[in-house]
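User: Second chain of the day. Same drill as before.
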Amino acid sequence: MIIKLHNIPIREVIAGYKDSAEEGIVGYHGQLNIRPAYQREFIYKPKQRDEVIQTVRKNFPLNTMYWVKTDDGNFELMDGQQRTLSICQYKNGDFSIDWDGHPRGFNNLTHEEQEQILDYKLSIYICEGNNKERLDWFTIINIASIKLTDQELRNATYTGPWLTDAKRWFSKKGAPAAAIGDKLVSGAAIRQEILEKALKWISNGQIEQYMQKHQHDPNAGELWQYFQAVIDWVNRIFPNQKSNRVKLMKGLEWGKFYNKHKGDNLNSQDLEKRIVELIDDDEVQNQKGIYEYLLTGDERALSLREFDEKTKVKKYEEQKGICVAKNAVCGNAHFEFDEMEADHIEPWHQGGKTVYENCKMLCKHDNRIKSGK
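Assistant: Same format as last time:
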């Protein structure tokens, strides 16, 4: 692998700059792919973007950038996309910066000021090597820069027409997936988090295998249709998604629930009635677990209220340390306090409350057998 440092003036880097949205962004006379498939969308905040231009304007050194030379003799921007786009967009007139107390875009600068910016030399390492060498280098330089997410790193490996189409649905600002899943799915589209979630669901967690299998597919229609099916299913069985419910519903593993329960006979009116009851139930400590409980029946999702220490100590003394489990494996033996656990006499699902009168102390072994823990 060959790596060489080049000092390239801004006027050369931005020459031929063209932002074609989903079709890509190019510069350097059309030879530089500024946003390869593995790169993130533009995520700089205005202050960060402005600081790039201020650095150039003051002739301060800007952090080194990294390009990789492709097999066709062109280049891909490996590290430095945010800085490069900030420069290109400023030259393009997309924003202004504070210049001695006044907002000034590039076109408002004097000829001398413009030339100073265009003559500024960027320090760029250009790497030449095979695919494995380039990917290894990419991984190494990413350690020292702003970390890519796991999904952004996967995108670096499985580039192709499938990924290009998938990003169109899941990864752009205002992406269709973000729009239809706004109340249900957490994560930022431009950081590939919604794409990662959809892939996790459709592949049952085998994201790399799924991407490898479909890498050269002409489009990501299967994934997009699956994601729509998940959202439609949730909207059908849980139609009440008013503001007070969003905090409970957003971010749940809806795809996982869909995969296991899409064929269940679920009545939305009955489910809504139970949701209201569970929200009002003081025993339920984790209201976000209500939806999982209704689909799976697993009470652990609710984090039901437990007996406090005072109640347990008092009940232990009342029982004189004897395990009162029915058909006890221990033979209703005596135990030390820390060898016992509190249990409900009447279970929660039968209306039992977490109060002293409904408490019994069992040895850990019998309690866990009884509870299936």
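Residues 185 and 197 are 8 Å apart (CA to CA).

User: Great, on to the next one.
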